[in-house]
Amino acid sequence: MKKKIFFAALVLFIVFLNSMILIVSIIMLRDKLSAVRDKCLAEHYVIASSLIGDMQALEQRGNHVEENIDDLMRLYSRYLQGRGNGLAVAFSGEWIYESPAFASEGTMIFPPDTGYSQERFVYMENGNFPVLCVYGSFPAPWQEYGLMYIGNLGDTVQSWRHTKNILFLAGIAVMLMMSFFLFQFLNIIFRPLRQISGTSAKIANGNYGSRIPVRGKDEISSVAHNFNLMAEQIENQIKQLEEAAEQKQQFIDNFSHELRIPLTAIYGYAEYIQKALLSEEERYECTQFIMSECSRLQNMAYQLLDMALLRREGRKDDNCSVKELFAESEKVMQVRASEKKMRLTYALSRNCIVRGNMEQLLILLNNLIDNAIKASRQEDEIRICAYAEESAVVVEVEDHGTGMEAEQISHIKEAFYRVDKARSRTAGGAGLGLSICERIIQIHHADMSFISEPGAGTIVKLSFPVEGKLFPER
Q1: How far apart are the first and last CA of the chain?
Q2: pTM metric for this prediction
Q3: Between β-strands 94-98 and 86-91, what pairing exists: parallel, antiparallel or unpaired?
Q4: Which of 301, 267, 293, 23 lies closest to 164, judged by CA?
Q5: Chain segment 121-155, per-residue pLDDT in tens
Q6: Where residue 474 falls among pLDDT bands split at 50, 70, 90?
Q7: DSSP for 61-110?
Q8: Around Cβ 408, how many Cβ atoms within 10 Å?
Q9: Which of 188, 245, 297, 322 could form a disulfide with 352 if both were Cys (CB 3.0 to 4.6 A apart)?
Q10: Which is it for strands 353-356 and 318-321: parallel, antiparallel or unpaired?
């Protein structure tokens, strides 16, 4: 409907506008030709009067006019030739003189028959060049002579065409503006229906947050209001389903990733019990460690479930000793480092206290150490240290491995992102380690930064804000 109205109104406007421009152009052309006609008549009268005086003077000196007509007309022709005009003289119905520019055209066949009257004829010739001709006979005793004034209309016609083109261009501009304003006007009229249709299509395509602006209190506003209520209910239900699915998927991904490190340690101790000759005390210590790691796996599962359900909020009820954190990490990660023939060095000048959850912090630290092991070569040293810095406790994990580019650092916290995809596949990584670390950092309101260069290794710096005492009382 809107398109039909738009095109019908536009066609009517175009026809009206072009008709008006055509009428104005014709009127302008008539005015210009009338002005040229008056000018040509005036110049014809002046030249004819002057030429009669010259002819009288020539006869008084005993010379024939017909024989000297070229000399008489040369000055007048030279004067008019610069403006594109010309002259021609007739005697007894035959041309005895023509301006050179017009004589070469061959369009002037015979003089008009005036019956030797002094009435002047004005007419147009539209040959190669449009001209306006004014012809008139001389008074007695020169009535056999006639003068043709030929006015060049090229400039006049060109000027009119230029003006006409400008008018049509202006008409096109007006037409475009009219089309724009007409289109906007129709948009305002059809906006409510278009909004309802567009919003329905968006919701059908899955954009459940789309709403219709409600204006006024008419029937369309009532329909829009009820439509928005329906869309809001649908959006809330879809969000609940998406959040539930996302929480479940995060739990599965994170828990599957975190199972690997404790299971590696458990398998290592179990294999050690199976293959080595151990005393009862050593066997008891190994089984005790296995039970401890199994308990940690159980706690880890609950912690990951809490992270999936609570998102960025977690329990931070304990005062965690960094020394104890390093000791627990060393028990697990030394086995992992020994398999790769690497050295782990834990450095702590003075024990510090961090407010947080020990299990989550252990997951954080072990993930960073595990990434350092993957990035390092055999017999490399990985250094883990902690120190106090103003009102924060800083933990650093430093390796001398492959390092990273600046662009890679900006993406490493994204889930499933791998710096070296081939190496990660070999090591069995899923690309979730740093994503889990980032979640734990957010829960503890801490900060994690990376300093790395290709081939020069990486330093991961964890900064935990501390309220109260940094160090435990002795």
Answers
A1: 86
A2: 0.41
A3: antiparallel
A4: 23
A5: 666 665 566 778 888 888 888 888 888 888 877 77
A6: very low
A7: TT--TTTTHHHHHHHHHHHHHTTT-EEEEEETTEEEEE-HHHHTTT---S
A8: 16
A9: 322
A10: antiparallel
